[in-house]
Amino acid sequence: MSNTAVQPRRLESYVYGSWVAGTKEGQTLLDAATGAPVAQIDSTGINFADVLDYGRKVAAPKLQAMTFHERAQLLKELGQLLMTQKEEFYTESLHTGATRPDAWVDIEGGIGTMLTFSSKGRRELPNTRVLTEGDIEPLSRDGSFLGQHILTPLQGVAVHINAYNFPIWGMLEKIAPTLIAGVPCIVKPASQTAYLTELMIRRIIESGILPEGALQLICGSVGNMLDHVTEQDAVTFTGSAKVGRMLKNHPAIVANSTRFTMEADSLNASILGEDAVPGTPEFDLFVKEVAREMTSKAGQKCTAIRRVIAPRAQIDALIDALRDRLSKTAVGLPGAETTRMGALASLDQRVEVRERIIELQKGASIVAGNPDQVNVTSGDPEKGAFLNPVLLYADKPFEAEAIHDVEAFGPVSTVMAYDDLDEAIALARKGKGSLVSSVFTNDPKTAEKAVLGVAAWHGRVMIGNRDTAKSSTGHGSPLAGLIHGGPGRAGGGEEMGGIRGVKHFMQRTAIQGSPTLLSAVTGRWIEGAPSYQGEHPFRKSLAELKIGDQLVTEKRTITLEDVEHFAHFTGDTFYAHMDSEAAKANPFFDERVAHGYLIASFAAGLFVHPDAGPVLANYGVDNLRFLVPVYFGDTLQVRLTCKQINPRMNSQHGEVRWDCRVTNQRDDVVAQYDVLTMVAKTWPLAATPA
């Protein structure tokens, strides 16, 4: 039998189109649970200015030639592929100390986040390269000079500097909105768990799905990279507030006003409502949630509950319940079947957590767990970075500053007592800004007061009660559609948040000009831009239809019989339509008026074409407004204009937005809205395979 030791693999960076190893031996990375060498990491010899330029010059033009839908589609294909390879990532994740449930959040949670962004990009963004925002702003009385806000991709790259606790999710939740925006990414994972990030990026690069240069990787230090960032780049950072502030004040970032987003230390709080006494579902849910947040990822989550704020009358029962639950947490090797909590990321991290617990003890006492005595069900407590959960209690939390200033980034939380809800709110605020807070109550007044009291200090507030017990994603779960960030100590940034996250990597610009030129820039028809009348636009497929195609309909006069028939047929006998005296007493009307929805219905009757054709369905209206009352004898006419064309990928149809303007005989606009239809790309439709 050979006694040759297995050599740790050498991590490489993916830069300027190839995999590159550092020129020095670098740092040896150890398995968090066994202490065995896993990998070596070093980035010496990389030209970081060239890395930035490669992204700007090679990848950016390719990405920005695509539409939002095309970029989002790439992420869908990538996410589906990575999901088929997940077991390889789970195996590698064991080295980080994470159990399978912990790794699920990181791996499948990260891939799922990317897929969610892909879906939102295809559903909520137009299939264009320019994004309009808000309504047209009239800048002249005659409508010849207008303003419109647009968003376009930054012309640089985004540098994403990530933390060690989520080597997959932390990367994917950042690159997804960045790539949809059309901006290339450079990922710099924390060294301790970079081997897992590197493995996934290898699989991404091998797939060939992303354009070359759209994703680069730095394994090791970023060296002098930040010296070369410009006003068109963006930098995001997840980690300690100390390092984040140092990066935020980097001379190049300050001089160029480079976009910088930080997600840092966060002393998140959870409040138990006064109504949530022992025996209520809310009390039980609170105990379960606190224990879960303490032990999930061994407490190494930026969203973990660090401060447990509870009514003084419930403190003893709460501590007893938590002590009992935490004592049943089996700590050991992450791959062992009996393990419920794995190891911290490294032995150095365990030393740091123990030091932080000593600081916390200046204002609190340990009531459960012993940081110096490690009990494991498997593994070596000396070689592995194991630590049993530790719970502290502060009887006088307003006098104990350390519990509001010091974060032990591990399975550690501090219970603190409050005497009324105002005190609970004040304690939550002493975190000086956090990513998330939660409130467990079944009392609406408590929920309202607590949420409004803490909201300004938090990026997210979760309300837990019996109604959401089965459906809630929990206190500590960031979600793609909601912002992940917080004010103050938490860094002042916002990540994700759905399409808000995409916009962070785009420049908002106010453009001014004539309707014709604004329409050309935005790809949307604007009042005053050219229009084209001829064949009924509902007879045109997307291959034939163009922006500005317009129909001006025949006219229809509204009669008393129309209104009364509509009222009785629909059941809408509101007095303004049926009672002349009551209508005259209304300050908005001179006489009985036609129903608004009668106007919209008659308008549809005027502009639709009866024959089967390219228009497949009407799926809604946007911004419907009734502007001028319609009386008996008024004559209506409709002008319908193709406003925006949005072809769907991998489909036989697309979406068309029509500007619908209904006028009376005096040319007053009585109703205005957008009609939304599904239109075939070609007509007749191709036969569907059997």
From TrEMBL:
Q: Where is the MaoC-like domain?
A: 547-657
| Top-rank taxon, per record | Bacteria
Q: Which UniProt keywords apply?
A: Oxidoreductase
**Keyword Oxidoreductase set for record:** yes
Record keyword Oxidoreductase present: yes
Q: Where is the Aldehyde dehydrogenase domain?
A: 19-496
Q: Which NCBIfam families match?
A: PaaN-DH (TIGR02278), PRK11903.1 (NF008868)
- PANTHER family reported for this sequence: ALDEHYDE DEHYDROGENASE B-RELATED (PTHR43111)
Please state what the protein is called: Phenylacetic acid degradation bifunctional protein PaaZ
Q: Which organism is the protein's source?
A: Paenochrobactrum glaciei
